[in-house]
Amino acid sequence: MNLFSLSFGKDSMATVILAAEQGVKIDRVMYCDIRFSPDMSGEHPLMAEWIPTAEKRLKDLFGITVDHAYSGISFIEQFYKVKQKGNHIGDCYGFPYVVGAWCNDRLKLKAIDGYMRQFDDKDITQFVGIAYDEPIR
What we know:
Elements: E1 2-5, H1 10-21, E2 28-32, E3 35-37, E4 40-41, H2 45-62, E5 66-69, H3 75-79, H4 102-116, E6 125-128
Parallel strand pairs: 1-2, 1-6, 2-5
Antiparallel strand pairs: 3-4
């Protein structure tokens, strides 16, 4: 099964479009939907406006439907959530630290892990588009 991760940026869009043009089988395309609040995207407003347009173009041109993975909690909800254990019981999560940022775990990885669980019994090839000049991942 071929699963494509899509951020709707130039690199991931180019990966999906090139794969479609080259006849690579595209089984699923997943976008990790980070929310600022339950009603507001965590994306820059111009990007939030672009995403539905890009989704429509992918559907119209290539028949690609994009799945949205959402953790179920927004940035603002987690920001004010009170810690229940550890050395800082009673403190709000607040602004994420550079190292070990809670937002990556709670908003992004939780959403992606939840999405991927539906495919536990499948052999998956995951495609992630990154720029050539980005650091090696």
